[in-house]
Amino acid sequence: MNVPLLDLKPQLDELREEIIEKVIEVIDSTRYIQGPEVDALEAEVADYCGGAHAIGVSSGTDALLVALMALDIGPGDQVLTTPFSFFATMGVILRLGARPVFADIDPVSFNIDPNQLEIALAQDRDRRIKAVIPVHLYGQCAEMTKIVSLCEHYRVPLVEDAAQAIGAEVPFSRPGSSPAWRRAGTLGIAGCFSFFPSKNLGGIGDGGMVISQDPDMAAKIRLLRNHGAYPKYYHALVGGNFRLDPIQAAVLRVKLPQLDVWHAQRRENAHRYDELFTASGLLGNGRISLPRAVFADQAAKQTKEVNYHIYNQYVIRVQERDAMRIWLQDSGVTTEIYYPLGLHQQQCLQPISSSVPMPHTEQAALETLALPIFPGLTEEMQHHVVQTIQAFYG
Ligand SMILES: *Cc1c(COP(=O)(O)O)cnc(C)c1O
């Protein structure tokens, strides 16, 4: 049996006619730059996330880049982030001439460890850290109550890399107030999303969005997205071409109303893996461990369904990861490693890297394995995945 890591076909089949109709509408409108589809998607994503302002951009990477540009990050500055993320999180920092500094992850959630974050901020005596970028890895939010409180205490702007986590919810509270669920991207000065096709909300090409609760920040990002021009042909700022394609916006608008259903399907698949692995007897002897949804217990107390995890990836830890991956591939099961190397270990960083060890990240890079989790994955396929893993151990 073949089990792909990701099959976009089931999702496409649900909406194919509507998508094609909308794409043709954009083509026939002859409005190929910006326009009503982009404006409408911005309003809908702002509404979905609970963000005040949303600015469509060309990719998740450009969302991060333009957010840092709006904060005037540049040479001499440092940006504090997690070493366990997709390269773009660090790439944008380097491209602006700034230096990434890292706080290691929590080995349970794979997200930045607030205690490590605190140590890094406290050590920054000459205040060179000009932004903090937590990443909501695999679709689960970082510990935002602590992170927001630290960023406020040290007065460092917070930019969320929510590329894998659109719609993910996190219990958030300020001192003295009771926690409320907030959506990823709404807790800092900017939240960055990606519409790369493999994300939970994916286009038919590249796309991204920045949301912000701050009107001045939003206005600046809006200018930077289009060369910093205001009015047209007058440039107080140097921006770029970071515009979102209206064809992508039109497709995403068809998909957005289905997003919570797809999130729920991914959670259902995750539950099924949890049950199958528990029944398999493979757990508890240190060979395999399953992903922990750290906010699930709190979510279970709610009357409505909460996106406590959107499972963009379902990532297990395996001692004999590389051998297991080959074994699975030989049985038709495609998996992926997110990520095989910490950002702090990347070669492009070596001339400037301070070579501070990041033990939890380095271990995660050796042990993590993402299993297929997409909506449309069948029960049979999941049985096949778990049985193949059982067979690996004989
Ligand atoms: C996908 C991703 C990005 C980049 O998004 P693109 O749309 O591919 O440019 C950035 N950060 C993280 C964590 C991602 O997963």
Automatic annotation (TrEMBL):
This is dTDP-4-amino-4,6-dideoxygalactose transaminase. It comes from the Bacteria. The keyword Cell inner membrane does not apply. Keywords: Pyridoxal phosphate. Belongs to the DegT/DnrJ/EryC1 family. One of its GO terms (molecular function) is pyridoxal phosphate binding. One of its GO terms (biological process) is polysaccharide biosynthetic process. The modification N6-(pyridoxal phosphate)lysine is found at residue 199. It holds the Pfam family DegT_DnrJ_EryC1. SUPFAM superfamilies: PLP-dependent transferases (SSF53383). The active site is at residue 199.
